[in-house]
Amino acid sequence: MLSPMQHKKIAASLFSALKSGKALTPITETHPGISIDDAYKISLAFLDLRVVKNNEKIVGKKIGVTSKAVQDMLGVFQPDFGFLTDGMAVLDGRVNVDCLISPRAEAEIAFKLHTDLKGPGITGKDVLAATKYIQPCFEIVDSRILDWKIKIQDTVADNASCGVFILGDKKVNPNDLDMASLEVVVRKNGIAISRGMGSSVQGSPENAVAWLANTLGEYGIPFLAGETILSGSLVPLEPVIKGDKMHMEIPNLGSCEVEFV
User: Fold this and answer.
1) Phi (first) and psi of residue 253, to 5 degrees
2) Is residue 79 part of a domain?
């Protein structure tokens, strides 16, 4: 276990990396004894710096590393979790890559809540009942850890490697869909590069959201009405550079586009 002072010091280093664009040596190398509980406390301190120093507001939560494709790619074999702020939301579909370190695009399904949820004991059915609508979403993950050499403690401390997110325009009631059978096709610069199913995310996206509600509930953190919850990538992460354009399409749910400038 690390001390509260170490938590704050590591959080300050992550915040500095966010601001400077210079990645850190893996925290699991500099602090081999770090636990997931330590990592979560670091993430809270990191979040506090964003709120206090950047005047950001919390607008939701996210789960990551949920599908086998992403787990195999990163070598991390359990989900991570973090927070979304208004400073991470991209409203015009244009992402400035100069503000990121090593961005990768994920195609996800976002849940907009109309009811509070607090674990433990939340089920996928509870999530669907609490959801106002779902949207297609690109999350652009961006590790503050050098070369994406992460273990689960690194990514949890680093706010689940969240960079920015972009929501599609269409809003759909999830109860009108078979969530597990939803299929996304992702295109990069007009060429289809990957496809994935809702079932690849813990059996169905609402199950991933339930896991996140229960995990954060153990720390006394609820989901709040009005928040957006990202349920994890349905496809492998795709590195992106300036000039790239990404497009995702989910039949019956809609599309989302992002351009990197």
Assistant:
1) -120, -30
2) yes
Which CATH number fits the domain that encloses residue 248?
A: 3.90.850.10
DSSP 136-183: EEEEEE--SBGGG---HHHHHHTGGGEEEEEE-S--B-GGGS-GGG-E
Q: How far is CA 125 from CA 84, 175, 176, 206, 224, in A?
A: 23, 10, 13, 8, 17
Structural domain range at position 139? 58-260
Predicted confidence at residue 22, as pLDDT, reads 96
The span from the CA of 244 to the CA of 59, in Å, is 27
Rounded CA-CA distance 183/64 in Å is: 18
pTM of the model: 0.94
Asked if the structure places residue 24 within a domain, the reply is no
Sequence-ordered list of residues with C-beta below 8 angstroms from that of 243, at least 6 positions apart, any chain: 260, 261
- Regions of the chain with pLDDT less than 50: none
Residue 254 lies in a domain: yes
Using one digit for the tens of pLDDT, what is the confidence trace for 151-161? 989 999 999 99
